[in-house]
Request: fold
Amino acid sequence: MTKLLGKIGLLILALTLLITCTLPYVTASESSHPNEHSEKKSDEVDVKEILFHHVLEQHDWHITDIPVGDGHYIPLSISLPWVVYSSDKGLDFFFISGHDHHERNASANEKGYTLVHKDYTEKIQIADNPEVTVYDFSPTKTVVQMIIIALLMVWVFTSVAKGYVQNKGRAPKGIQSFFEPLIMFVRDDIAKPNLHGKHEKFLPYLLTLFFFIWFSNILGIMPLNSNIMGNISITFTLALLTLIITNVNGTSSYWGHVFWFPGVPLPVKFIMLPVELVGIVSKPFALMVRLFANIVAGHFMILALISLIFMLGKNGTSPGGAFGIMPLSLAFTLFIMTLEVLVGVIQAYVFTLLTSVFIGMAVESHDDHH
Reply:
């Protein structure tokens, strides 16, 4: 336990140092420029902006909004670095600061760039020559959140692995006692039944998939975190990995059933061929959409329910409406958040289970008479 507490202390220290290093880029001073992001009218709540800002990529990590009087707010956020490449300027690395689009654009102009605000996201161009293509490699809040989850998983499972060594022949203790049943569940109830004796080969990927999705979903409903499974590019990548692993490991029997379905009349084979080819892509596509839709829908519902308080209260100018809807809104929000905790682990289970089923279908040796 002492070692575990020591590691937690080191992790907290590392995060503290990280935050300290980024403090110069925390934008927390007053803003005097009204715009659609930094200052909100006292009787207006842009729910659409709130919803899309929550799920779309951002180049800063928004923490909260600070009231400055007269119904105006300024955002407290941490600016993330910009890493861009163009034929004019080559590889460039810089920070952009500011509370609103005008201030951020002025900061970008000092570096020779212009920010274009489009569809709730920022695109960057060269100020003097906007026709030149700029390749943006900047870490967004989704990338940073993935790094945080990766570091968390490395720490957790390194601790579990050390626990296996230290407690060999004895009952598991500490963090090992919590995660060992989950690891055994993925192995015995997901991998083994579907992979036909080849589960050891694919178990590392399935475990990584399960815990990455689960950790992402749980952290995504906590304050100051990013909901990365509500970003379809993440679910697309996970589904693409499943597609690649499934088909790369496909046996000759598997491909024989795709291109020349055995045991059926010749005319039917020509009908089955396009169906099977579509099925190769549609199965991981369904995984992508299912995970994305379930996670983003829950977050949209929570944000919409909370926004009702500010909409009916006209952002503080009509307290009667706010207090009237608040109990009902908070009750439904608490209910949805409880469901989100369950959905988070259920979606991790479903994605991992179906991935194991698809891989199992590809690696199995089929009997033509079956």
Observations:
- Residues 142-363 form one domain.
- The first helix runs from residue 2 to 22.
